[in-house]
Amino acid sequence: xxxxxxxxxxxxxxxxxxxxxxxxxxxxxxxxxxxxxxxxxxxxxxxxxxxxxxxxxxxxxxxxxxxxxxxxxxxxxxxxxxxxxxxxxxxxxxxxxxxxxxxxxxxxxxxxxxxxxxxxxxxxxxxxxxxxxxxxxxxxxxxxxxxxxxxxxxxxxxxxxxxxxxxxxxxxxxxxxxxxxxxxxxxxxxxxxxxxxxxxxxxxxxxxxxxxxxxxxxxxxxxxxxxxxxxxxxxxxxxxxxxxxxxxxxxxxxxxxxxxxxxxxxxxxxxxxxxxxxxxxxxxxxxxxxxxxxxxxxxxx
Length: 301
Ligand code: SF4
What we know:
With 301 residues, this protein is an alpha/beta fold. It has helices at residues 15-24, 44-49, 82-88, 110-119, 144-147, 189-208, 225-236, 252-257, 276-279, 289-300, and strands spanning 2-6, 28-31, 54-58, 70-74, 97-102, 123-125, 155-159, 175-179, 184-187, 211-217, 241-247, 263-266, 283-285. It folds into 3 domains: 2-74, Rossmann fold, CATH 3.40.50.11840; 82-187, Diphthamide synthesis DPH1/DPH2 domain 2 (Rossmann fold), CATH 3.40.50.11850; 197-300, Rossmann fold, CATH 3.40.50.
């Protein structure tokens, strides 16, 4: 069978081993060299061009339905040292009820994580998101596993590397991170404050903007032209000049070159917001459009 393999950034290093295994089984194997950041980003056009019968997508689970080609998702589980959790848990002894979340790399150990917290006397809450596959799993664009239970808990505990996932949470609950890669744990207070300030600043910048670029990505799970067109129509009523920018991969240098835009609004990955420094312009997530329109209306009156 002709198969296209797709690896996210950080996992492209295992492409050779995986490709060789499949070749030995008699398959004709191709490897996508495009960037890939999530299950939202299937290489459908590349697969179509080379007439592949199947895509094997590594490191993420299913994000959306796909028609016309078989897609197999292969996770890449990374074990967390459970002793680290047992050790770091001591820092949060003052909290009784916790919400537990992790990302897809460690989701296979979620019940083990839960057991440890219960054994240590915590009441543990967990939930499932909308775009995710597993209880307790969060994505950069789906924090419902935490937000659903935020009002029942004193603290959200995230087990995983970096701050990308916990900083995507919508609730204002306190967050504690246990990072298995650097073997450290910490509260996210300062970063959350920075994020809130930044979001306010972006909204204010959009309020004053004359020229707005709305980003639409053609990536399979991010494409939302309808939202972009509706946003354009609504913003133009407030005398904003709005253009819709179509791209597959967002190239920050290219965006910078459109120097007449004051602000960008993303209908693509919501976490493009985090990359505003690379564009040197504010980037507002489309989910903030209602707040922006409300403020514009208030100013008008
Ligand atoms: S839309 Fe963004 S945050 Fe969501 S899965 Fe895709 S890359 Fe990750």
